[in-house]
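Priority: medium. Attachment 1 of 2:
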């Protein structure tokens, strides 16, 4: 946790969740649906993998993804906001997972979701040791925010 000179918090966690159970992953873009929350606050609401902010501000988000059963010819990950579009993106060849992070401004009621894409079919997300996870922090105040 970072602090300003007056000891107020610069950023703090508002949401953290992971996928504890397997989830089907067909070819194309699929939204990761978080089923186990570790940190929840009133500043965000989550439903079916869609994270909606209740307070405007700058947010830092991190998405970790891994699936079972091998790699793919095309593999991509993204965090997408209805307010600005993709704010973090990864593309690689023959991938089976990865991590992306991004900073994004979100207005009240804006939402974002985490998605993975591959060109094969019927690969499930791995539920092993929290390998599919999202974490969100909110920046708090200061003259530049």
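Attachment 2 of 2:
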């Amino acid at each position: 946790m970072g602090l300003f000179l007056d000891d107020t918090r610069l950023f703090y966690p508002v949401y953290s969740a992971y996928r504890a159970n397997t989830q089907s992953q067909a070819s194309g873009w699929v939204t990761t649906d978080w089923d186990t929350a570790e940190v929840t606050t009133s500043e965000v609401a989550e439903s079916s993998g869609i994270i909606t902010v209740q307070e405007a501000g700058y947010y830092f988000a991190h998405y970790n993804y891994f699936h079972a059963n091998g790699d793919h010819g095309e593999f991509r990950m993204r965090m997408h906001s209805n307010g600005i579009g993709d704010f973090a993106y990864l593309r690689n060849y023959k991938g089976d997972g990865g991590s992306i992070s991004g900073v994004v401004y979100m207005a009240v009621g804006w939402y974002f979701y985490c998605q993975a894409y591959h060109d094969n079919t019927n690969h499930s997300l791995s539920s092993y040791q929290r390998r599919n996870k999202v974490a969100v922090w909110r920046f708090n105040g200061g003259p530049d925010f």
